[in-house]
Request: fold
Amino acid sequence: MAEEPIPEIALLAQVLAAASTEAPALRSTRRGSQPAAPARGPEDSKAPPLLSRRNSILSRRSSFGMVPGSRRPSIGPWMLHRRVSFSGLPIFQPILKTRLENTYRMGPDKGCKFDAERVQRVLEGTMACALGTTVYSAQGSAPLAQSLTELLQNQAKEVVPPRYKLVCHVVLGQQGQQSLLVASRGLWDPETDSFASATFSNTSLFAVATVYGVYFE
Reply:
């Protein structure tokens, strides 16, 4: 006597059979609605390599030398220095100053002192050549006095012995038949330090220049 199938099992078998017959139809409609995918070769089918922690750190450090908006990487600061911090920024080393030995010289050598008369002649000749027939101008008096100060200081350095510090002071004004007195005071060693002064005047302006020579121990 043959066994009769259970109604629930028979119903489940019919549902599975219907799903297997409808599945190819659904796949065919989906393939027809979307464009066909390009064929992949054996190399494309491989999975992309996983980046290790070391590779990620190197790629992060290489981004420090990139200039925004450019394709070619520039030489970053970390490539120009030997010591680099963990963030990729360079560690700047302090600049060491050159140390010189003491000379133990407390005064200039014999015949190498500040010669006030010689410096005065240099000042007079330089002012006569620089000013000459210059006309006074209220707007141009300040730059003229500054340039004249630099010129006189450079000319005085050529006749002053070494180890002397020079301070140049220039007074420039309009010629108006007025009286003027220029005075100065300083703290120095009268045995080694001195000064030289010279004046110049024409029909438009006058100038008083003073150069102080202080021995540098």
Summary: The first strand starts at residue 164 and ends at 174.
